[in-house]
Structure prediction request, 230 residues.
Amino acid sequence: MKIAIFGASGFIGRNVVEALKEAKMDIVASDIKGMDIEIEGVDFVKVDILDYGEVSKVVKGSEVVIHLAASPLSVSLEKLGMNARINVEGTLNIMDAAREHSVDKIIFSSASSLVGEVKYNPVDEEHPCKPKTPYAVAKYACEHYLRVYQELYGLNYLIFRFFNIYSPWQYPESGGLIPMVYKKLTTEGSFNVFGDGSQTRDFVYVGDVAEFYLKAIRKDIKGFSNQLFL
Prediction:
């Protein structure tokens, strides 16, 4: 089975690529950035998802597309237009290429932040969504584009809404809580907790996320109602 991965240079992408390689899958990894390390047996292509021609070449011949590429939340607060172009227009390019080349399924990485203000816990798939950032708005729009493409063109998809993934290759500069706390502990010996300390967060290890991707590829899991909230 041939899998095309966009956003392969990120810390999630790298771990997913490693997992798929271990599963003996044929992988075409792509990102706008190069890979810091070369993964033996994995083809890497430098791709800007805003260039449809480049996207189409990566998707061609693939049975499943994993879409992890994104402009992050921090950028969306300062460069709204650029962030929207990458996250919405770039996603539409991937979806159109998937249509053109009759891909079996797109697996899209959404974001838990699109929920906005939490009304109840635990947060399930039926929780109302009111995004509070441009990044979250774009992710929510892409979820609905996927639904519409499925209804209009029969393009199958699965959505993961990630929440606080931690893993190797995740650096403090990413803004992730665990690497930031680790850096504070190793360099300063302590870290600050703001508020009364009762705040809670869910965390998921990237190895579990990679396993979810493997299951999503191998099983006939698709459709808007089958979103997995992580």
Remarks:
- Residues 224-230 have pLDDT under 50 and may be disordered.
- The chain is about 40% helix and 15% strand.
- The domain at 2-166+203-229 is CATH 3.40.50.720 (Rossmann fold).
- Strands lie at 2-6, 26-31, 43-46, 64-67, 105-111, 157-162, 165-166, 204-205, 228-229.
